[in-house]
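thread: overnight batch results

M.L. [08:02]
morning all. the overnight job finished for the chain we discussed friday. pasting input first so we're all looking at the same thing
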Amino acid sequence: MDLDAITEYSALHAKPNGLVLQYGTAGFRTKAEHLDHVMFRMGLLAVLRSKQTKSTIGVMVTASHNPEEDNGVKLVDPLGEMLAPSWEEHATCLANAEEQDMPRVLMDISVKAAVNLQQDAFVVIGRDTSSPPPSAGDTFQDPQWMPETMDSIELCIYHVFLYTPSSEKLSQSVIDGVTVLEGQFHDYGLVTTPQLHYMVCCRNTSGRYGKATIEGYYEKLSRAFLELTNQAFCSGDDYRSLKVDCANGIGALKLREMEHYISQGLSVQLFNDGTKGKLNHLCGADFVKSHQKPPEGMEMKANERCCSFDGDADRIVYYYLDVDGHFHLIDGDKIATLISSFLKELLLEIGESLNIGVVQTAYANGSSTRYLEEVMKVPVYCTKTGVKHLHHKAQEFDIGVYFEANGHGTVLFSKAAETKIKQLAKESEDKKKEAAKMLENVIDLFNQAAGDAISDMLVIEAILTRKGLTVQQWDALYTDLPNRQLKVKVADRQVISTTDAERQVVTPLGLQEAINDLVKTYKLSRAFVRPSGTEDIVRVYAEADSQENADSLARAVSLAVFQLAGGVGEMPQPGF
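M.L. [08:03]
and the structure it wrote out:
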């Protein structure tokens, strides 16, 4: 390890004095202007992790569902999963080391983690936003702008869509960190976050999971989707269409690239595709879920199926307007319910005793939990918020379904389950073979490395098609309890600590008692609060027997948080 070279390079990516960041559930997230040193250091860390695991490691530059002026970075472990917790600690230590201490901290990490510095390292890099678009009349020099299927008019559109100035520069900072430690890298350029997870998994399974190219991703998913839906399409009258809000993010570009792969089974109409509007502003899955109303820029007619991705396309929610113009949200809970019921039906048909479980967080609507346990007879487990916690729990089942209410989730199949299903698809007869073949395609259609809006969308569309369900029939599986989510700004989110999968507050003292007293005043109610993993805010969730009561309870709990947990800025006000 050439510490002199590292010190020299680090000076070009100097850390602002006193800045402290935490590697949270989704990596580092903050204003883009504060991230240059973090990106360089995550390039360094990715090389060490690659050397230690003797595997390809991913680095994703992404703002996720955050505002356009933000950005972030996260590392992807060998099988496409989230970074191991012990390495999250290393990431935080390295990012926060003052400039003069950084080389020593880097060496300490390599010693603690028993990294063989002579081992080769390989890192793959992706980003979901790009450099500023050129002015009108400029010529286009960078080949990254021109997918093979894109004509010059589309090219101009996507120059506008991908405008977030920070990402290309930050991606280069990652590359600087990789190269100064003599690591090798491949830059995938513009990809969704789940696509980079997929690439990492493919590279570390010698191609068994799939081909580690964007075309390989499209081909694998589209082939499984078309096989699943093929028998359900009887005539041109059955041709299905879907309206998709892309949050002015990378999902628009990637779904446009994928359109011709799936056009035989699904027609997608894109909105908020980045030709105007800001990333995640008044649109996207997080906005629709939190505000429980349609995104701006979406043209909706009664009973049309619509969905929203978030900015980096790892979350999805569905919704529709009824004939009276009322908005109906179908979030991650109902997505998990639809998928679980379909999978359980197929398992009954193949007659195998594979166990299936659904993993939720405290944000799951109480009605969904009751429906899964009492009607579907599927066991449900609650974990702390954060994909890594759900993913880990889902691995305990032959088939583990996990979705957060925000629409982030996927399904995991154990190796034993995959082997058994593939064997039955080859050897069984009649209905049993058909069910096994469907399960085999479902396995290929899910991105098991990470929650993936594109993958999940195709799974949902395939299930609705096969079951002959309308969006209204899906929505009618159960009735959600009205709920409300709010955020409270605090001076320090670490004053809040929780237990029982984040459903009970431990500190500050008195806050849980205050919440309990408030909950007692409403019917069918519950409420909880938890600190954000990335910023100094406390998230509040409340549900009750009516929307008015859910709103009132959420506001009352928000006021308690503001008063007892060091709220800053404007005190929570009534009205939504």
